[in-house]
Amino acid sequence: MSKDLLKLVQSAEMRKSKSDKLIASYIERNIAELPFETAKSIAARLEISQMTVGRYLRRLGFDGLDELKAALRRGSRSNPAWQIKGSLDRFQEDLRDGKFLAGLLQQQVENLGLIYELTTAPQWQQTIDALISASEVYVAAYQNVRGIAQYFAAQLSYTRSRVAFMDGLNGTYAELLDGAVEGRVLFLHDVRRFAAKARPLAEEARRAGVKVILLTDEFCPWAKEVSDISLVIPGSHGPLWDGAATMTAVMDLLLANIIVVLSGKVGERVELLTRLQDVFGDFES
């Protein structure tokens, strides 16, 4: 698929206008990173309109960038999220000058600004209400996101009872899907490269009457299809690999919001857990 696409954008037919040449050249240079782009990000980089990018993609035969990315995924044997994108040699000088890390930090600052917009959206309050009112909360995640999702589950357990991280090792997820308790919530964390089990788990949960909250990134094509509430964060467009700073920031903001809403109840639970930690000697005095 990549070779066919390159052949097409290199043709005279797809390089008629100035904007054609800009987009075609961008695709040529960055074809490996197209799965991590949006029409908006491409337009911003080239200083053209999203509409211009959309028209060009339709001339290529794709109804938008999502369709192109899906075709690239089908034609590629692998698309690791934690991959090194491009040659490291070109970053060496910027690293010595401090520009490289400064650029990455600036991207994280920009992403945090976008997260603020998410905290003012209706789905943010819906998530807070669901995590507080649920009879039981089950957190699930896979691959590289698994560790920070376990962190979230552990922290959330300090604010309320009946919180568990599911590792799926029993092969059934029966603790969530057996229908024994009403009012359960599944908080599923998944970003590209998307785990094979994530979507089926969300679909089964909804069939079982479990409310599904999905924390994902802008590259997820099925977020709204399988979730009751979707929190969509900016995806990584950095030169190296995907970091977890943005997702971790969202988790910490969720926890802070829940703590404030629950107020004294959290204090009582923390006192209980602290006493139990002292009883079992988990921490130094």
Automatic annotation (TrEMBL):
It holds the Pfam family HTH_6. GO terms for molecular function: carbohydrate derivative binding; DNA binding; DNA-binding transcription factor activity. InterPro entries: Homeodomain-like_sf (IPR009057), HTH_RpiR (IPR000281), RpiR-like (IPR047640), SIS_dom_sf (IPR046348), WH-like_DNA-bd_sf (IPR036388). Residues 3-79 form the HTH rpiR-type domain. GO terms for biological process: carbohydrate derivative metabolic process. This is Transcriptional regulator, RpiR family. It comes from Rhizobium miluonense.
